Amino acid sequence: MADLTIPDIAAFGRAHETLSGSTAVADLPRVAEDASSPEPVEWRVEGEVITRTEAPEYADHIGLRLFVTAALDVPCARCLEPRRALIDIDSSFVVFDSEEAADAAPLDDDRFDPIVAQRSLDLRELLEDELLLAIDPAGTHDICSPEALRRLGLTPVGETVARIEDKPSAFDILRSLRSDGGEK
Q1: Where are the domains of the chain?
Q2: Could you tell me which residues are beta bridge partners of residue 50?
């Protein structure tokens, strides 16, 4: 497992350095809990110093821009079989040296996400965070396989809909017990 640490985040940003690479999903333990892929995650991070014209409230702060592309196999929310999720991330961050300073950052600013790094930055953790946020936990196949649905006790109905085949609901049973047969 390669070391994905930027040892001096301030120097990285001031020098406008770029770091890029490929990382296997298996080397991202939190992502690997829910996803797999034979293809690596491709990423690039660029350092910068945020300018006054770009964002006056963050002027002279170190900024990072992270680009990530991945094709991950994650469970379908309907049939639980693997489905392909294409991930394309382009995120910008402003670096703070303390939690207090990051907490004071405006919450309604969608241009930059705050991150805390006193000196070094664990890029692996940042990659994992961004990938986990990008995966849609409710994502489904366009059409689930009928076999997968049946294994879960679901009955395929039409092309994309599944329903649970189960006993009548308690309300249906109570309705049938009414003296008028459930009719109003």
Answers
A1: 5-134, 146-177
A2: none
Neighbours of 96 (CB within 10 A): 20
Report CA torsion sign: 21, 27, 32, 38.
positive
- The dihedral built from the CA positions of residue 31, 127, 134 and 73, taken in this order, carries a sign that is negative
pLDDT tens per residue across span 112-153: 888 888 789 999 999 999 999 999 989 988 888 888 888 887
Rounded to whole angstroms, how far apart are CA atoms 83 and 92?
28
Tell me, what amino acid is at 132?
L
Per-residue pLDDT of 25-84, as tens digits, reads 999 999 999 999 999 999 999 999 998 888 888 888 999 999 999 999 999 998 889 999
Q: How much is the CA Rg of the chain, to the nearest whole Å?
A: 24
**Residues paired with residue 33 on neighbouring β-strands, in sequence order:** none
Rounded CA separation 59/55 (Å) = 6
| Side chain identity at residue 163, one-letter code | R
Give residue 171's Cα distance to chain centre: 40
What torsion, rounded to 10 degrees, do the Cα atoms 56, 119, 30, 21 define? Answer: 80
**Sequence-separated (6 or more) residues with CB below 8 Å from residue 77:** 137, 138, 139, 140
The structure's pTM equals 0.78
